[in-house]
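In response to the reviewer comment on reproducibility (Comment 2.3), we provide here a single inverse folding case reported in full, input and output, so that an independent group could reproduce the run without further information from us. The structure tokens appear first.
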């Protein structure tokens, strides 16, 4: 028996634990006390993160679909088929989906494969569905699209403003830092349509309508400027565009009475929130997908940055704009360039110098993808249905858009229009069921590698057991396909460390990192540009990442969501996660301990709405949107705002994304999963 220290494969917090290995197999989890992130403590998902590893339905052999049925195949047969089919398509007929669940090395390999082997512009991953607006919004105003502070910093805040994040359920070990701040006297403000476990610990709950974030933040900024609470020195020395911001937020549209009417929050509560936030001396904003998953997601993110610049709450402990990433390596997958507009470290593909840098380093004999932006995954689904034949081939690594993407009927139609799809994953899922070839991959416990947490901390995965059957690591599979297609010399790696070293040499923010330096409890935060650099837990201490070093403010008018409640669909639906399950459920629903706690989904309904509908607690109801309908159990609770309903999105049998709208933010192309119109019908038994 031995302990192998590794990093959790679930949310973006980046907790560490020991995998208990008995006779070559992972048998349990034990605390790892030296991690500065979680100090030996774990949430329920982390506690049981071993239970799915040796599940009996792990994929163990390549599968090829023949006459509509999957049959087992040898790696040689599968790779030969894939290589022949892949080579038959033109570059822009191909697309790749990388994964926030796999390592940095895996994502770098997929990005290189897409641009160097396929020579396609079209690569993306599920950051498009959760934090694409963070990357775009914060990069636009700060010059860097990432969480500005460390998790530990939150404990030093004097005011914590949580908006669009149920932190205690979705990032419990970050919730622990909030409670440390509260114990030290900090005020906790919570803005959400639901009174979640996070909200129950708050000093002030702003129970607003989903989608009215900009209105709420503009109203708070008007109150701050009116009372003279803005940080004039910070604005003078470190910000441009203040007058543009002021011109917008000081409009009569954002006086507290009007804001109250739109948001549903009492005017006095907004006034209190503005005062606590502006006068604390160290205020931190925490947000997640409640801010980002909107057609105005980029506006929401920018507004969070603006109120921090307005009050000077950046570049110090206990401050910052802290975007909490939902998946273990969504930050890293973005850093690795698994996006249609950038190489690693957000080097733009349309920049001729960046294009030449990667082309020269990779040395593909026939060049790399042209220097143009490609399709986002959300746009890709529209292209597949509306421009049939433009995209014919899709290579998917560790993604499950048949549960995670909005408007699942539309997604199914899109994927079925493909000529050829390859999926590599650890389990058969709703997406791989539609594939032509399925390849068995290793999970986090079966390979070495790195992942980058929400706080930009790059940490190690360490191999604890061999993969089941003939399963292989993701980057190894990618390199094998590349070799079959005539590019063996471009993928010469023998170990994950080889992949990392190649990536770091091309990636300024990772350039100072090595496996040796990362092999310690505290690891390193990027940017870490040299081998001597200690890493950067706090961004923007003295200047921002913009060309002139100053943060960029502007006026952002409030706009409603794409689809508002009306007579036909009178309720506002929002979606999210619960503490016991994770995203599409592929891993957590194979954990008996977690599945027992929350085995299926539900819809939260305010008691007044339930009474009007004649619905009782525990009854099955039908929820209908303009895109689809589901049957689901009603949970009557006064913790949700009247007129608003909530469904968790983990459960395929009552999939929230059958209902959600594929309306996109015009900049980030992120879908509006947090606000659409629905109606609810009581099911009358025949």
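Designed residues, in position order:
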């Amino acid at each position: 028996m031995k302990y192998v220290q590794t990093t959790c494969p679930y949310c973006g917090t980046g907790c560490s634990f020991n995998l208990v290995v008995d006779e070559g197999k992972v048998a349990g989890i034990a605390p790892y006390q030296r991690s500065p992130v979680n100090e030996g403590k774990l949430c329920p998902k982390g506690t049981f993160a071993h239970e799915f590893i040796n599940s009996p339905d792990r994929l163990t052999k390549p599968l090829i679909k023949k006459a509509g049925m999957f049959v087992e195949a040898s790696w040689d047969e599968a790779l030969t088929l894939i290589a022949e089919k892949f080579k038959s398509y033109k570059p822009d007929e191909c697309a790749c989906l990388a994964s926030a669940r796999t390592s940095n090395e895996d994502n770098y390999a997929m990005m290189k494969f897409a641009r160097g082997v396929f020579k396609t512009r079209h690569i993306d991953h599920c950051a498009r569905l959760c934090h694409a607006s963070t990357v775009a919004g914060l990069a636009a105003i700060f010059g860097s699209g990432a969480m500005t502070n460390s998790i530990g910093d939150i404990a030093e805040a004097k005011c914590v403003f949580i908006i669009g994040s149920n932190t205690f359920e979705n990032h419990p070990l970050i919730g622990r830092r909030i409670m440390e701040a509260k114990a030290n006297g900090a005020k906790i403000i919570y803005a959400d349509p639901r009174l979640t476990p996070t909200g129950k610990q708050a000093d002030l709950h702003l129970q607003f309508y989903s989608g009215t974030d900009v209105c709420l933040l503009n109203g708070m900024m008007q109150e701050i400027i009116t009372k003279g609470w803005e940080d004039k020195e910070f604005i003078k020395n470190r910000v441009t565009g203040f007058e543009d911001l002021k011109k917008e937020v000081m409009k009569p549209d954002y006086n507290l009475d009007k804001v109250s009417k739109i948001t549903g929050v009492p005017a006095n509560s907004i006034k209190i929130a503005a005062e606590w936030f502006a006068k604390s001396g160290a205020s931190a904003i925490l947000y997640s997908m409640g801010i980002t998953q909107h057609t105005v997601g980029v506006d929401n993110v920018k507004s969070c940055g603006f109120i921090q610049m307005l009050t000077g709450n950046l570049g110090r402990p206990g401050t910052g704009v802290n975007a909490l990433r939902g998946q273990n390596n969504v930050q890293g997958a973005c850093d690795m360039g698994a996006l249609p507009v950038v190489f690693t470290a957000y080097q733009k593909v349309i920049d001729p110098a960046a294009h030449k840098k990667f082309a020269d380093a990779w040395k593909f004999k026939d060049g790399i993808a042209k220097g143009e932006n490609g399709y986002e995954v959300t746009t890709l689904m529209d292209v597949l249905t509306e421009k049939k034949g433009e995209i014919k081939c899709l290579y998917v690594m560790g993604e499950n858009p048949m549960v995670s993407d909005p408007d699942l009927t539309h997604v199914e139609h899109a994927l079925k229009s493909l000529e050829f799809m390859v999926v590599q994953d650890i389990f058969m899922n709703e997406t791989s069921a539609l594939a032509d070839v399925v390849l068995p991959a290793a999970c986090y416990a079966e390979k070495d590698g790195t992942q980058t947490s929400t706080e930009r901390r790059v940490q190690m995965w360490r191999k604890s057991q061999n993969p089941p059957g003939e399963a292989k690591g993701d980057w190894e599979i990618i390199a094998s396909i590349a070799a079959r297609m005539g590019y063996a010399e471009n993928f010469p790696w023998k170990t994950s460390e080889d992949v990392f070293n190649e990536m770091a040499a091309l990636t300024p923010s990772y350039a100072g990192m090595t496996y040796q330096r990362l092999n310690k409890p505290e690891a390193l935060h990027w940017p870490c540009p040299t081998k001597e650099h200690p890493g950067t837990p706090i961004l923007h201490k003295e200047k921002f990442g913009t060309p002139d070093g100053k943060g960029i403010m502007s006026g952002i008018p409030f706009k409603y969501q794409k689809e508002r409640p009306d007579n036909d669909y009178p309720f506002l639906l929002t979606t999210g996660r619960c503490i016991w399950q994770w995203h599409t459920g592929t891993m957590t629903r194979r954990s008996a301990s977690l599945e027992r706690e929350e085995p299926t989904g539900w819809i939260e309904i305010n008691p007044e709405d339930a009474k009007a509908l004649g619905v009782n607690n525990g009854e099955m109801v039908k929820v209908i949107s303009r895109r689809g309908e589901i049957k689901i159990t009603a949970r009557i609770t006064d913790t949700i705002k009247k007129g608003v309903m909530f469904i968790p999105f983990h459960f395929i049998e009552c999939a929230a994304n059958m209902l959600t709208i594929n309306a996109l933010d015009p900049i980030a192309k992120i879908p509006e999963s947090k606000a659409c119109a629905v109606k609810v019908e009581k099911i009358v038994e025949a």
